[in-house]
Amino acid sequence: MAVLYIILLIITAALIWAAFRFTGKDSFRKKTGAHSEHIAFALKAAAVCLFIEFGIFNLNSLHLLGGQYQKEKLELSRATSVSNIDTSSGKNISGGYCTIEFTGLNKPVGTLTVDAESDKKSTVNISIDIKDTTNSGAYRGGVASMEAIRYDARSKTIPCNFSGTVYDMKLSFTAEEGETITIYEMGINDPMPVHFSIIRFLVMFLGSFFAYALSSDKLLRRSYELRKKPVSVIAWSLTACLIVISLFITQMNRIHDTDHSLKKDFHSSYGNQISREIVDAFEAGRVDLDIPMNEKLLALDNPYDWSQRTDEVGSYPWDHLLFEGKYYSYYGIGPVLTLFLPYHKLTGYYFPSCWAVWFYGVAGIVFLTMMYLNFADKFFRKINASMVVLGLAIMQMSTGIFLNYYYANFYEIAQASGFFWTVAGAYFMVSSNVIGEGRIKRVRLALSTASLSMAVLSRPTLAVYCIAALLFIWAGYRKLKEEAPAAAVKKGKDDKKDAKAPGKGYLSYFLCALLPFVLIGSIQVWYNWVRFGNPLDFGIQYSLTINDFINSQYHTHFALLGIYSFFVAYPEFSEKFPFMIAGSARTFNANGYYFIATGAALGLIWRALPVTAYCQSRRAYRLSDNKNKRLYSVLLAAVCVICPLIIVFSIWESGFGARYCCDFAWQIILGSLVIMFSLWSRCKENTQRHLNTLMIGAGIVSLAMNFVQNYTYLSPSTNFTPDWQAYTLSFARLFEVWR
Question: Which of 76, 255, 330, 357 is 20 to 30 A distant from 590 in Cα terms?
């Protein structure tokens, strides 16, 4: 195997030499024409990637080279002692500790092979103790370890870095009660085979070529207006990939149920607080939930005090509202009115939560791409296409919507539907032309305010964006006033005063802008009033949840913890794939009760490096020559800074949940891109080139950090079914070169 490795290494080195030598010749350029540079890079990249594939990722194939390693099969019958294992079948006898000991090996050991498999888990973790030349009197415990992965033969052979002769060896593992672990085969000094991974090769090759395309002035490092079509193709290809990833994560969540099927999903007779309980209540003509009241709960001095809701009290609906002897739901009725209730009316079944979260999530992803491209058409036409593409990629990857697919409960339904309606509102607002060039489209403006109103019906926290939308409506009104004289001149009218007469054309504008707020907002106001007697009371303080929200007090320390966790929290190094982890939220000696709902706290500054552009916002404003820069600065500050900060500060009471970032992450990133691109347009060509390179680096970091956060949030290697865990661990092994 080592000889094969060396031959492959020589061949790939020769390919690199040939690629670099022949692609520089004039004859090559003549044959390949205008695409010579692209083809030359592709050939060089392919050769280098092959060298890395064979030379680095298969380095362990050289492990036995130069040593006196004699291959030997280790039969269970040859073992000196065996504990809790049937030697005839290779299976553990019962749950608990199992050991296999081989004495008198008396030879160097370069690799160890143990073909073991569990019937309940994706891996078998084996600890190896040895006596060797440097420690022959007693076992050196845990000197090596193996994680044998189901379906992955390569994981069942590990390289061993022992010293000199190995005299004795003991293998040990633990089986859970009811778990059967089977040892099929064992051996020492089996060569580690050369393994070419097409996945690993394509990741390297396609990644390097895409980076080249982003940096080439013949491809994407040209103005967006000259590269609109390829940018659109890339943008929608990226969107399609994100939809597939969303489907993949949703599928992992579904297969907890081994008897899952689409038919079973969409013929469900059960659901959660949003998908079933509110639906049943509305169909019965009521706003309280039809859940039997726990009288012991009502008898408590303070039922909102978690410590009083003991086992003696009995069961009660968690995270529901208790008000005047009835149960209610705090969570928004937007998804109920638009999806769950109509579906139940039509079919008699409850719409599955996992597919609802997926639907709202991918709809939001699609609308975010539409909004961004429309925004780029208005304001980024002179910016490099590469920068525009990277901006979209960073924003899409950093939204946080993917964190909602792992657990599809009513929390995630509210979060995903709020995300969708907010993004849809932003798209219709931008495309209505209340800002930028073009005639104002009143229907789109109405769709925008309707969507933003639905966002509030889905998630009350998002009401801040409705307030910010009033600034855009005012901007559109200003634009109408400024366009009136120009329209009069164009029509050949002399009396401009008549064109600006009060109310002319403005009534329809304000009706389209504000009527959806009034109509849809009145639904929420009525819903609040009939439940709690107050049109502005959403009822969160009546929650039977992690804290007594009626008596809990505001502490700035808690609010600042959200700022740190969402914006600053840094990743930690790990020796296992993906080599970084997003740790738990830190409390900095809170000296009070601060709830942490999830782990995977990773600051936006790491997931989207362009947010650092806010540090240069004053300079960008000063250098801008846009006549509307004051107006646009107010709009940007409201939507991209003030509203997100209000949301982060407002959740001090609920604590930290990584998924909350989809309420504000993309807005912050969009604002930072506006500042960055504004500065970029004022730079010299050489500086623009360097900034383009930095942006490529930022895109790579964003991809890595967002992958780290999603992987850490609910690691597929320890969750879901054993088969999915095994596939994930095998994928991770592709990049753990030392294992």
Answer: 330
φ/ψ of residue 569, rounded to 5: -45, 130
Any idea how long the chain is? 739
Q: What pLDDT, on a 0 to 100 scale, did the predictor assign at position 312?
A: 87
Question: In whole angstroms, what separates CA 311 from the centre of its chain?
Answer: 37
Return the number of other C-beta atoms located less than 10 Å from residue 695's C-beta.
Answer: 24
Task: Give the closest residue to 524 by CA, choosing from 613, 580, 458, 623.
Answer: 458
Whole-number Å distance between alpha carbons of 635 and 463: 16
CA distance 2 to 7: 9
Tell me how far apart the alpha carbons of residues 658 and 688 are, in angstroms, rounded to a whole number: 34
Question: How far is residue 32 from each of residues 15, 26, 37, 575, measured CA to CA in Å?
Answer: 19, 10, 9, 44
Q: Is 158 helix (H, G, I), strand (E, B) or coil?
A: strand
Integer angstrom CA distances of residue 171 from 102, 157, 164, 553 = 9, 14, 19, 56
DSSP 487-501: HHHHTT-S-HHHHT-
3-state SS, residue 107: strand
- What CATH number does domain 72-188 carry, 3.30.365.10, 2.60.120.260, 1.10.10.10, 3.40.50.720? 2.60.120.260
- Tell me the C-alpha distance between 311 and 700, whole Å: 50
Is the pLDDT score of 494 beyond 60?
no
Contact 662, 404 (CB under 8 A): yes
The closest of 252, 176, 554 to 406, measured between CA atoms, is 252
Query: Are 178 and 95 a contacting pair, CB within 8 Å?
Result: yes
Rounded Cα gap, residues 689 and 699, in angstroms: 15
Helix, strand or coil for residue 657? coil
E strands, 103-164, are 111-118, 123-132, 135-149, 157-159
pLDDT higher at 502 or 8: 8
pTM of the prediction? 0.91
pLDDT at 102 over 70: yes
Distance (Å, rounded) from C-alpha 625 to C-alpha 117?
Answer: 68
Q: What is the DSSP letter of 142?
A: E
- Residue 620 and residue 35: Cα distance in Å, rounded? 38
Q: Look at the alpha carbons of 614, 619, 621, 626 in this order and tell me if their dihedral is positive or negative.
A: negative
Which residue type occupies 296? K
Task: Quote the CA–CA distance of 601 and 264 in Å, as a whole number.
Answer: 35
Reported as a single tens digit per residue, the pLDDT across 458-474 is: 999 999 999 999 999 99
Tokens linked to 173: 């593992």
How high is the mean pLDDT of the chain? 91
Identify the three-state secondary structure at position 649.
helix
pLDDT tens digits for 602-654?
999 999 999 999 999 999 999 998 889 999 999 999 999 999 999 999 988 88
Contact 73, 134 (CB under 8 A): no
pLDDT of 23 reads 62
Q: Which residue has the tokens 């697919």?
A: 405
Phi, psi of 572 (to 5 degrees): -120, 145
* pLDDT of 678 over the 60 cut: yes
**β-bridge mates for residue 146, sequence order:** 126
For 646-676, the pLDDT digits (tens) are 999 998 888 999 999 999 999 999 999 999 9
Residue 605 — φ and ψ, nearest 5°? Answer: -65, -25
